[in-house]
């Protein structure tokens, strides 16, 4: 009996393991429909090293606009190799006086790294409305917790450049100013809910493209 048990034990120890299939990556096939869990995978036989490289963050954005700033995303639709990896990023270019207005990312935390210039950044806590504001320079990093109102402002005389990274492929975005004044929500309702007067609301709607 003992020799049978020993034989079975040795057989288990030295038998080849069952082959497990591990999916190392799922480069998005942007020609296929997007699903709730992401894009379908590109045929692995057609994937090359080029799929895992992206140069879009090396291109300066156009800051000739109302906020004197530009956001260049690196999401799945721009960088298909991010599909299924649970992360994304973007580039921020801010001319002197440029601002990314108060906004939220409902689906992700954000980590900002300054590559050039200086920025004043901050967020507002939801529990007690405490503002956390700091001036950061080249090489500094700042984090914005998920869902909290936050901003980036270049209040210096030189161009500023930063990269931001998110722990989600879909961080989401809602800019407070545009949510309030770039739609057709009745001005009277905006005035009642923001305590702003009629002239100010209509001025902001005209500037940001809102109506009604």
UniProtKB/TrEMBL annotation:
<dbReference type="InterPro" id="IPR019780">
    <property type="entry name" value="Germin_Mn-BS"/>
</dbReference>
<keyword id="KW-1015">Disulfide bond</keyword>
<dbReference type="InterPro" id="IPR006045">
    <property type="entry name" value="Cupin_1"/>
</dbReference>
<keyword id="KW-0675">Receptor</keyword>
<keyword id="KW-0325">Glycoprotein</keyword>
<keyword id="KW-0732">Signal</keyword>
<feature type="binding site">
    <location>
        <position position="105"/>
    </location>
    <ligand>
        <name>oxalate</name>
    </ligand>
</feature>
<dbReference type="GO" id="GO:0048046">
    <property type="term" value="C:apoplast"/>
</dbReference>
<dbReference type="Pfam" id="PF00190">
    <property type="entry name" value="Cupin_1"/>
</dbReference>
<feature type="binding site">
    <location>
        <position position="110"/>
    </location>
    <ligand>
        <name>oxalate</name>
    </ligand>
</feature>
<dbReference type="InterPro" id="IPR011051">
    <property type="entry name" value="RmlC_Cupin_sf"/>
</dbReference>
<dbReference type="GO" id="GO:0030145">
    <property type="term" value="F:manganese ion binding"/>
</dbReference>
<keyword id="KW-0464">Manganese</keyword>
<feature type="binding site">
    <location>
        <position position="150"/>
    </location>
    <ligand>
        <name>Mn(2+)</name>
    </ligand>
</feature>
<keyword id="KW-0479">Metal-binding</keyword>
<feature type="binding site">
    <location>
        <position position="105"/>
    </location>
    <ligand>
        <name>Mn(2+)</name>
    </ligand>
</feature>
<keyword id="KW-0052">Apoplast</keyword>
<feature type="domain" description="Cupin type-1">
    <location>
        <begin position="55"/>
        <end position="202"/>
    </location>
</feature>
<feature type="binding site">
    <location>
        <position position="110"/>
    </location>
    <ligand>
        <name>Mn(2+)</name>
    </ligand>
</feature>
<feature type="signal peptide">
    <location>
        <begin position="1"/>
        <end position="20"/>
    </location>
</feature>
<protein>
    <recommendedName>
        <fullName>Germin-like protein</fullName>
    </recommendedName>
</protein>
<feature type="binding site">
    <location>
        <position position="103"/>
    </location>
    <ligand>
        <name>Mn(2+)</name>
    </ligand>
</feature>
<keyword id="KW-0964">Secreted</keyword>
<dbReference type="InterPro" id="IPR014710">
    <property type="entry name" value="RmlC-like_jellyroll"/>
</dbReference>
<dbReference type="InterPro" id="IPR001929">
    <property type="entry name" value="Germin"/>
</dbReference>
<comment type="similarity">
    <text>Belongs to the germin family.</text>
</comment>
<feature type="disulfide bond">
    <location>
        <begin position="26"/>
        <end position="41"/>
    </location>
</feature>
């Amino acid at each position: 009996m003992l020799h049978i048990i020993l034989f079975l034990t040795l057989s288990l120890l030295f038998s080849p393991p069952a082959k497990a299939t591990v999916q190392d990556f799922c480069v998005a096939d942007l020609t296929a429909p997007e699903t709730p869990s992401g894009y379908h995978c590109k045929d692995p036989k057609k994937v090359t090293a080029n799929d895992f490289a992206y140069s879009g963050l090396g291109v300066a954005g156009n800051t000739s606009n109302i906020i004197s700033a530009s956001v260049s995303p690196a999401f799945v639709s721009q960088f298909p190799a991010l599909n299924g990896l649970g992360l994304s990023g973007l580039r921020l270019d801010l001319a002197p006086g440029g601002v990314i207005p108060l906004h939220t990312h409902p689906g992700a935390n954000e980590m900002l790294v300054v590559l050039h210039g200086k920025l004043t950044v901050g967020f507002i806590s939801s529990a007690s409305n405490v503002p956390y504001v700091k001036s950061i320079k080249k090489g500094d990093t700042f984090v914005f917790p998920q869902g909290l109102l936050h901003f980036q402002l270049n209040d210096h005389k030189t161009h500023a450049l930063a990269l931001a990274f998110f722990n989600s492929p879909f961080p989401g975005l809602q800019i407070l100013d545009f949510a309030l004044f770039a739609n057709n929500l009745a001005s009277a309702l905006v005035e009642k809910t923001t305590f702003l007067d009629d002239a100010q609301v209509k001025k902001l709607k005209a500037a940001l493209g809102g109506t009604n």
